Amino acid sequence: MQGIWTTERIREAEGRAFAVTPDGELMRRASFGLSVQIADVLAEHTGTVSGRRVVLLAGSGDNGGDALWAGAFLRRRGVAVTAVLLGSRAHEAGLAALKRAGGRVVSAEDGPQWIARADVVVDGIVGISASGSLRPEAARLVSLVEAPIVAVDLPSGVDPDTGAVDGPAVRATRTVTFGALKPVHALAPSWCGEVVLVDIGLELTDPDLQRLDVADVAAAWPVPGPEDDKYSQGVVGVAAGSATYPGAAVLTAGAAVRATAGMVRYAGHAADVVRAQWPEVIATGTVADAGRVQAWAVGPGIGIGSEGRDVVRYVLGQGLPVCADADATTIIAKSPEVLDARDPDTPLVLTPHAGEYERLMGRKPGPDRVTAAREAAKKYNAVVLLKGHVTVVAAPDGRAAVNTPRGAWLATPGSGDVLSGLLGSLLAAGLDPWLAAAMAAHVHSLAGAIAAQNAPTSSSALVHAIPEAIRSIRSLLS
Ligand SMILES: NC(=O)C1=CN([C@@H]2O[C@H](COP(=O)(O)OP(=O)(O)OC[C@H]3O[C@@H](n4cnc5c(N)ncnc54)[C@H](OP(=O)(O)O)[C@@H]3O)[C@@H](O)[C@H]2O)[C@@H](O)CC1
Ligand SMILES: [K+]
């Protein structure tokens, strides 16, 4: 797992590190690492380092200090460095070092002409002490940049703890961060570009947020052993779709078939269509006739009328893990009494998008999506997978994971149905529901990238890409 820490926790760790390292040492480590990355971006985009032109946008704090010191290091490699000073003051030691190394220093007013000729621009405007979007002077200069931007610690204008952007902000090619990943790096991938972490010796434990590594997913993915049969690996029940809309049933059941080797049972009005598409599925008309399962995936396309409500109430009353998605989420929001059927100790996973979240919570998720997911998890005593470009998975005990996607092709109709089939099958295999949800999100986005190959895709293609996604993840283990 990759750990991610809030800026408050980073500051505490920096405070501890400051106390035991010589003055200026942390910034030296940070800015040296930064200079290596700037040189790398220069080489990548121009083929050389020496003789190239770098412009530093330097704000008034230590973020600007990092940029100025990195500029001094780059001078030693023959780079022409110009610092454009923003704000009322500049980091004194950094400014002196850059000047000593032969760097040029100009005012914001003179910035545009230097920015126009830059090979790389460095965003040292603001770091973890940022609040709000870029101020007008910085915003104007940033809007002129055509060269690749290397952001120092984080792209300025993006909220460090939520990744929210509500005005002008820097869109970086690469973000070089120090000590530990901060929420912005996982929550605002399209603003950060490639994220590089430079170790400066901070000691941090108990991350505030986590992101699954491929290795975590590979290690935890259920694999049949020699003693296993079709029952022992977990039988998943799928209650989805309707006679008019059988697609949701086919996609949800199909994802469950493709995700694990266990058996899949289907219950609902689309039994014939499901059987025709997936002959291995045992399909019946009602949840009561479905037979024994170890978990339920309920909701996609079942409708929000009284019949759907009865289905949701029935599966919640079975004492089994449930993934409640789509219409099941709306039913729970509108008729919370269906939850009375649930034994509070049995796992429940809710998978709302922003609109369903609003129905469940009576308000929009807002810019702080991690807190939003945690609050819903507490309220419903359930794991909440909040869908969005970046998916957040929160558990009632406060654990939170983020899944940073690969591209945006997954925003296609039926994609959520596939996720709920995946998730249901992992619940049936007995996985911890928070881990199951985070793993399902991970495999879902990887399957999306495989299906899309940089072009539009469909949810059917997504289902068929699941084994390839699992194979590529598991190939790490061999
Ligand atoms: N501590 C360490 O160990 C290490 C820290 N390191 C580095 O220090 C960075 C944190 O530095 P920091 O705390 O000095 O503040 P920083 O983020 O530069 O902001 C400065 C000032 O900018 C202002 N400002 C606020 N919002 C703004 C906006 N939207 N647009 C424009 N300006 C805005 C606001 O001042 P104001 O103008 O409001 O008075 C604020 O006080 C960290 O990200 C990392 O790069 C590394 O060297 C490793 C070691
Ligand atoms: K920055």
UniProtKB/TrEMBL annotation:
Cofactor(s) needed by this chain: K(+); Mg(2+)
- Write out the residues that bind AMP: 387-391, 416
Superkingdom is Bacteria
> What does the UniProt keyword field contain?
ATP-binding, Isomerase, Lyase, Metal-binding, Multifunctional enzyme, NAD, NADP, Nucleotide-binding, Potassium
* Reaction(s) this enzyme catalyzes, per UniProt: (6R)-NADPHX = (6S)-NADPHX; (6S)-NADPHX + ADP = AMP + phosphate + NADPH + H(+); (6S)-NADHX + ADP = AMP + phosphate + NADH + H(+); (6R)-NADHX = (6S)-NADHX
Under Enzyme Commission nomenclature, its number is 4.2.1.136, 5.1.99.6
Q: Where does (6S)-NADPHX bind?
A: 62-66, 127-133, 153, 248, 301, 353, 417
PROSITE patterns found in the cross-reference section: YJEF_C_3 (PS51383), YJEF_N (PS51385)
YjeF C-terminal domain sequence ranges: 213-473
Output the Pfam families linked to this UniProt entry: Carb_kinase, YjeF_N
Q: Does the keyword S-adenosyl-L-methionine apply?
A: no
By sequence similarity, the record places it as follows: Belongs to the NnrD/CARKD family.
Subunit structure, interactors included? Homotetramer.
HAMAP family, A to Z: NADHX_dehydratase, NADHX_epimerase
PANTHER family linked to this entry: ATP-DEPENDENT (S)-NAD(P)H-HYDRATE DEHYDRATASE, ATP-DEPENDENT (S)-NAD(P)H-HYDRATE DEHYDRATASE FAMILY MEMBER
Query: This protein is called what?
Result: Bifunctional NAD(P)H-hydrate repair enzyme
Which organism encodes this protein? Amycolatopsis heterodermiae
